[in-house]
Amino acid sequence: MLELPFNPPIQQINLPDFNANGVTVYIKRDDMLHPFVSGNKWRKLFYVLDDAQQKNSNHLVSFGGAYSNHLVALACAGAMYQFKTTAFVRGEEVNNHMLNLCKLYGMELIFVSREAYKNKLDLYYEFAQQHVNTYFIDEGGKGELAAKGCTHILDDADGFTHTVCAVGTGTTLAGLAKGAQLKNITAEGICVLKGAEAMDHEIGALAGFDVKVHHEFSCGGYAKTDTELLDFMQHFTMHTGILLDQVYTAKMMLAISKLIAQKYYPTNSKILTIHTGGLLGMLSIV
Q1: What is the CA radius of gyration of the chain?
Q2: What is the CATH class of 40-141?
Q3: 179 contacts: CB under 8 Å, gap ≥ 6
Q4: Which strands, in side-by-side order, build the sheet including 84-90?
Q5: What are phi and psi of 11, to 5 degrees?
Q6: Nearest alpha-carbon partner for 150 in 60, 54, 28, 271
Q7: Are 45 and 53 in contact (CB under 8 A)?
């Protein structure tokens, strides 16, 4: 069985925006789990890699965009645990710092059109017919085993009233919510995609119950930014020493500051935010 390196620390965020209306906010530093298999990527891959080992599969096959943190994490984890790795990358062939890391870790990259990418299972089965001992991992690592890994995020966290994470595929939130339910903590998500309300049903199905997702803080959509978000990122980092990425964690933190200002959270709420890593994506804007 694989083991997480350690339990990452929980730190209080001592900023006026996060200590208003009798609310306190903390952050679990899952970004510190590993420099490249960081945050929710470690959590989501934990049981997936174990399952692949149990099935004697030695070739992991997955999917992602050209700036996918998941693909970097998978490539690194594959190298660490002696798996071959292959990724179908959406869109035209490009070079960037993320894909270069994937290649350094030995991952084979197959670029496919956006139309072909829509049929991931077809791509996988055609590939699997020509290669032995392959193992399918969905885009972003999403799935039941990934959600199971995320149920452990709160194993060492007690005394909180709420926990919040950013939402991309919804898998992390589903697992987080299941773990939170055991501790009587309310779990909610901040969706970073625009117009993704249909995802709520998928998250509920994976968690086994309805989970609140806020859809009004996407800042224009997935991987989109605006001046308010970028200014907030710099303000937060300058005053806490904690880096955020613009795709996920910065949107989550900005949303929480706005919800606190709106008095959404009851007085004396103690909120634990989850830093899901993804800091390599920040290099595309600095």
Answers
A1: 19
A2: alpha beta
A3: 150, 151, 152, 153, 154, 155
A4: 108-112, 84-90, 59-64, 134-136
A5: -120, 145
A6: 28
A7: no
pLDDT tens-place string over residues 165-174: 999 999 999 9
Residue that has been written with the tokens 């199905």 in this structure: 205
Q: pTM above 0.90?
A: yes
Structure tokens given for 221: 């959509």
Please write the tens of the pLDDT for every residue from 82-94.
999 999 999 999 9
Q: H or E stretch including 90?
A: strand 84-90
Q: CATH assignment of 10-39+143-284, given 3.40.50.1100, 3.30.930.10, 3.40.640.10, 3.90.1570.10?
A: 3.40.50.1100
Q: How far is it, in rounded angstroms, from Cα 234 to Cα 187?
A: 27
In 3-state terms the chain splits into helix, strand, coil percentages (rounded to 5) of 40, 15, 40
CB neighbourhood size of 245 (10 A): 24
SS3 assignment for 122-163: HHHHHHHCCCCCEEECCHHHCCHHHHHHHCCCCCCCCCCCEE
Distance CA 192, CA 251 (A): 7
3 state SS of 43? helix
